[in-house]
């Protein structure tokens, strides 16, 4: 199964002033959503996301983005203009 992570997000900066738990969530979120983490780590991240507002919002945003990609792929691929507008949108939100 191919990784979902777009390279630009994989390399996104994680702010150093976040609590260690939040940094862990941000660094591992795509693997978490893909079910690639160990059961222990998955349980720890899930508990943190449930208790932490910013991490919950981040997880919601990323999982919606992931669903969108999955839907578009299921329809036979992401048209170039859609891909570009999604990437442009993400650039703006940084
Ligand atoms: Zn957090």
Brief account:
By secondary structure, the chain is mainly α. It is 72% helix and 0% strand.
**How many beta-strand segments?**
0
Which ligands, by name, code or SMILES, are bound?
A: zinc ion
Radius of gyration: 14 Å
* Average pLDDT number: 83
Q: What portion of the residues fall into strands of 2 or more residues?
A: under 5%
Helix-strand topology string: HHHHH
Please report the distance between the alpha carbons of the first and last residues: 28 Å
The 3D shape can be described as globular
How many domains, in number, for the residues? 1
Largest sheet: none
Q: List unreliable stretches of 5+ residues.
A: 7-11
**Structural class estimated from helices and strands:** mainly alpha
> What fraction, in percent, of the residue positions are helical?
over 70%
Care to describe what's here?
- The chain is mostly helical and 94 residues long.
- The protein has one domain (18-93).
- Helices cover 72% and strands 0% of the residues.
- The longest helix has 22 residues, at 53-74.
- The radius of gyration is 14 Å and the shape is globular.
- It starts with 6 loop residues before the first helix and ends with a helix.
- Bound molecules: zinc ion (ZN).
- Zinc ion binds next to α2 and α4.
- Residues 21-22, 25, 48, 52, 54-55 line the site of zinc ion (ZN).
Write the layout of secondary structure elements.
Blueprint: H1 7-10, H2 20-34, H3 39-51, H4 53-74, H5 80-93
Helix pairs in contact: 2-3, 2-4, 3-4
The structure holds zinc ion.
Zinc ion is lined by residues 21-22, 25, 48, 52, 54-55.
């Amino acid at each position: 199964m191919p990784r979902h992570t777009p390279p630009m997000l994989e390399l996104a900066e994680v702010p150093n002033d976040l609590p260690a738990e939040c940094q862990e969530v941000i660094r591992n979120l795509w693997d978490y959503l893909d079910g690639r983490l160990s059961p222990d780590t998955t349980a720890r991240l899930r508990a943190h996301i449930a208790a932490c507002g910013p991490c919950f919002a981040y997880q919601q945003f990323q999982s919606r983005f992931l669903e969108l990609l999955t839907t578009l792929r299921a329809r036979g691929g992401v048209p170039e203009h859609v891909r570009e507008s999604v990437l442009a949108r993400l650039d703006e939100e940084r």
